[in-house]
Specification:
Elements (H helix, E strand, L loop, with lengths): L6 E4 L4 E2 L5 H14 L1 E2 L3 E4 L4 E4 L1 H9 L4 E7 L5 E4 L8 H9 L9 E4 L9 E2 L6
Parallel strand pairs: 2-5, 4-6
Antiparallel strand pairs: 1-6, 3-9, 4-5, 7-8
Length: about 130
């Protein structure tokens, strides 16, 4: 039997690595409320809880008052990372250093490759509140 890689992580420990769109957060929040379920885990760096994928879902979780979010933690050194902006060049360790120094990258700057099999999930919002 394969182990489920999804684990529950407290929203209070999550850290953005880049900005986000307020408009997208609003749209996603309404979508999640309409469906009543959380269907995609966040992707996190296992050492620092940096949100590698899911900046908007992190903001939705905070605005909904969710205590936990489903997440998959990765050894960041094993993830391919690149910039979507020509003015930025970095590797995973530079991203960590930059974010832990108190800065975040602009929206749509950092891109990651988690492979072809990023799982979905299905949690009722009530399950994530306590």
């Amino acid at each position: 039997m394969k182990k489920n890689p999804i684990q529950m992580v407290q929203t209070s420990v999550l850290k953005h690595i880049e900005g986000f769109s307020v408009k997208r957060v609003s749209w996603l929040k309404q979508k999640i409320l309409d469906e009543g379920i959380w269907t995609k885990p966040l992707a996190l760096d296992e050492k620092h809880n940096l949100v590698l994928d899911g900046q908007h879902r992190m903001e939705v979780a905070i605005s909904l008052g969710l205590k936990f979010v489903p997440a998959i933690k990765y050894d960041y050194s094993t993830i391919k990372v690149w910039s979507l902006r020509k003015t930025y060049s970095f590797n995973w360790s530079e991203v960590v250093k930059y974010v832990l120094s108190g800065s975040i990258y602009p929206y749509k700057t950092v891109k990651h490759d988690f492979g072809p099999s990023f799982p979905s999930c299905k949690y009722l919002l009530s399950e994530l509140k306590s």
